[in-house]
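Sample 1 of the test manifest.
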Amino acid sequence: MNLYQVLSKKFFQAGDRVALRMPETGLQLTYKQLAERAAQYASLLTEEGLIPGDRVAVQVEKGAEALAIYLGVLQSGGTYLPMNTAYTKTELKYFVENAEPAFVVCSSKQTEAFSEINQQVERTFKLFTLDGDSVGTICDAANAMAKEFATVARAENDLAAILYTSGTTGRPKGAMISHANLLNNGQVLLEYWGWKEGDVLLHALPIFHVHGLFVACSCALLNASEMIFYSKFDARKVLEELPNATVMMGVPTFYTRLLAEDGFTKELADNVRLFISGSAPLLEETFNEFEKRTGKLILERYGMTETGMNTSNPLNGQRIAGTVGYPLPGTEVRIMSSDNIPLAEDEVGSLQVKGPNVFQGYWRMPEKTAEEFTADGFFITGDLGKVDSKGYVSIVGRSKDLIISGGYNIYPKEVEMVLNDIQSIEESAVFAFVHPDFGEGVAAAIVKSDPTENISDEALVSICKDQLASFKVPRRIVYLDALPRNTMGKVQKNVLRDLYGQSDYQK
Ligand code: MCA
Ligand code: AMP
């Protein structure tokens, strides 16, 4: 039960059909070519000593080669570990120490960092580079390999991937995702969203997260559909190819940025049968404005790294703004009280899920895994939700302390730990502010060690940037005499959000 076995059957049938088309470089790959390239990577990794289950950590720019490496890792029985290209050396070192990959593939600008990390870790790794399509030591080595490879058999719970997600403790956790998790979720979405022959996906998401790699690529690859593959989202460039696409997926920021373009017209959107949004709440205002501009209703769905997709608005039924639709076939969703008692319609509580999409636990953290599941096997998402009389699920908040900025998750604790380590800072609290482009932005409230000392925002930002991916770095900083606390001594982030997190806040 290797996911790649199912995929390769489709690739073989699709043959000379276009798999990937990169408008930025003019490069194009058929399904046959993609399968051959994946086989070359699988052969290479195996020849270099990969044992099924070994982790292959990858931090590279998006491209056809990057996708072929992912497929090659699956085919060879390895476990794929994608990493955000924005991660700094400090962050990368943690992932490598924790996951102990046998191989790392990185862009050449990170070779030095990974080489240093390799000297500091107990289990060393083989290091390859990849810089865009067809450049890098891994491409050169793969060129010499056979274009056929017998897919390595895997059991359904064997790991296809590990994706790190941060946590409320500030320590990232590796979500273990099995072949069966990915295959099940991909097949369910294929059916639910009515994928059909001739569908073309406009793909402008990064491929180091669930949304771009699993939701988008799994659907397109299982359907052997063409993907118009952009290295990143650029609204103007995307408009040029929109008329050639039938499906587009994005985070809400993609849609607000498209709407900000005067050139985004109904005619350009006409060929697209499905615009899908997820990873963060889509504002009702965006949904309505999009309908006004294009006549199309954005389909919003809801998922997590740990679970893949859980719910979706319907393809044919009513798509209701502000809701994330129905539980997907095979996935149970329930809303529970703080005493873990089922709540009635429209009551807000802890949203829990169970089903074949739910992950295998956190890598080498059995206690943490146990904490996040109920006794009867439901995963506690940390989201607060409700279900209405028609069965539509809405996400109304989060019990976990999380900021979602342009679809990227930031756990405040991780940023607070970096800030609190700065000598001139007594303590800090990180919270969300309303950001016009990203939905939420990272704000920090700082209490200085010495109230008379002058600390510049620039200096704080620069220290944070050394250690944290730059999307996690605070973009709004306020200096306070003390943090607001409740009678239990807990910092009241809601007070901080109310006072300093509004869109009209002036420093
Ligand atoms: C970039 N920057 C950001 C973000 N993106 N800051 C805050 N939030 C962001 N999302 C910062 C960079 O660090 C940099 O800062 C500056 O903006 C310019 O970077 P650039 O890369 O040029 O930005 P961009 O191209 O405008 O990117 C914005 C974006 C991108 C297109 C919205 O963030 C994006 O593609 N987001 C999608 C994320 C995603 O795929 N999430 C799915 C996770 P500086 O100049 O200071 O260095 S999966 C998930 O959530 C679940 C499973 C689900 O349900 O899907
Ligand atoms: P991640 O950890 O990157 O998998 O992000 C998962 C989180 O993103 C979920 O727990 C939700 O809080 C949030 N999320 C994903 N999709 C939606 C959505 N459509 N509406 C609201 N929140 C969402």
